[in-house]
Amino acid sequence: KPLVFSGVQPTGNLHLGNYLGAIRKFVALQEHHDCIYCVVDLHALTAQLVHDDMPGQIRSITAAFLASGIDPKAHIVFNQSAVPQHAELAWIFNCVARIGWMNRMTQFKDKAGKDREQASLGLYAYPSLMAADILVYRATHVPVGEDQKQHLELTRDIAMKFNLDFMEHIRRTGLGTDITVGDEPVHAYFPMVEPLIDGPAPRVMSLKDGTKKMSKSDPSDLSRINLMDDAEAISKKIRKAKTDPDALPSETEGLKGRPEADNLVGIFAALSDRTKEDVLNEFGGQQFSVFKPALVELAVDVLSPVNGEMRRLMGDTAYIDSVLRDGGERARARAEKTMKEVRDIIGFVQ
Ligand code: ATP
Ligand code: MG
């Protein structure tokens, strides 16, 4: 079975963007893939070092995974800091990646803000830890939101450079396989990862500004629907969501230049497993005063079972911690197998 890896940072309340862009795909992939899902707590230190309730944040992401339908016995659910091999491989990748590659990362520019000199070195090196998260399992399939596309391209660049730089060592140790990249035959140790970024809402936008992505770290709570929001909060946020005065168009072409309308239609489509075309067939020509209540009803229907189960699980921290401990143990065994081989390839005496 193909191996899937993905992670979510314990940096705050999970929102609809995380759910549609990531977690819902995690759930769907379980049937035909071997899946490793990680609460990436080391990444959580990059933008903000000290967190008031780190354990609570880690447990709530874990609860969201489980409440959404991830099976921690058939697959692996764990927190990143339980497997030090991620950090070990990230160091090696820091030495593989070039500063020029990192300088192109738009997430760093967004998150570092104006005073870049004051951003942490960890925020700058984030993509190299993310590459290590994936490649320490030699995972090939990575379900993420569209905002992570650039980081996955960097992951491929890092894997490729490692494979080429160490090609002779890889041959000598007998560990690689022959793959073709483009038309190039390469004797590779690390695979080329495939991003899984699709669906009608690969990037869910803020409810207050259709040009900004919905984000945990947005200071305005009205900008996002949280997985923990109750029906009343969901209804209020959708009613207050920014729109334009026009009716909905009957074709997707008509959503161009209307980012807020496009976003709400995309959310409706994703929540109901339909295409945007299909949604506009039903709602084209209607005002937001008709469309918004329908969206509220749909969002409450889809999210309230997840919300209820999350609340129940959050009351059972002993269970959540046992899931993480068990997942961490199994993840560590796999990651150590890769790291032994990587140390051999590099030539570290062990
Ligand atoms: P932060 O603001 O702390 O970076 P975040 O909301 O971006 O938080 P992450 O933990 O960084 O959340 O990302 C978890 C997953 O959710 C990733 O796969 C990411 O691509 C996806 N994701 C995040 N925001 C969105 C969004 N607005 N639309 C679709 N997917 C998203
Ligand atoms: Mg993010």
TrEMBL record:
One of its GO terms (cellular component) is cytosol. L-tryptophan binds at D133. One of its GO terms (molecular function) is ATP binding. It is an enzyme of class 6 (ligase). Its EC number is 6.1.1.2. One of its GO terms (biological process) is tryptophanyl-tRNA aminoacylation. InterPro entries: aa-tRNA-synth_I_CS, aa-tRNA-synth_Ic, Rossmann-like_a/b/a_fold, Trp-tRNA-ligase, Trp-tRNA-ligase_bac-type, Trp-tRNA_synthetase. It catalyses: tRNA(Trp) + L-tryptophan + ATP = L-tryptophyl-tRNA(Trp) + AMP + diphosphate + H(+). A motif ('HIGH' region) lies at residues 10-18. Keywords: Aminoacyl-tRNA synthetase, ATP-binding, Cytoplasm, Ligase, Nucleotide-binding, Protein biosynthesis. ATP binds at Q9, P10, T11, G17, N18, G145, E146, D147, V204, K213, M214, S215, K216, S217. A motif ('KMSKS' region) lies at residues 213-217. It is found in: Cytoplasm. Homodimer. NCBIfam families: trpS. Belongs to the class-I aminoacyl-tRNA synthetase family. Catalyzes the attachment of tryptophan to tRNA(Trp). This is Tryptophan--tRNA ligase. The lineage of its organism: Bacteria, Pseudomonadati, Pseudomonadota, Alphaproteobacteria, Hyphomicrobiales.
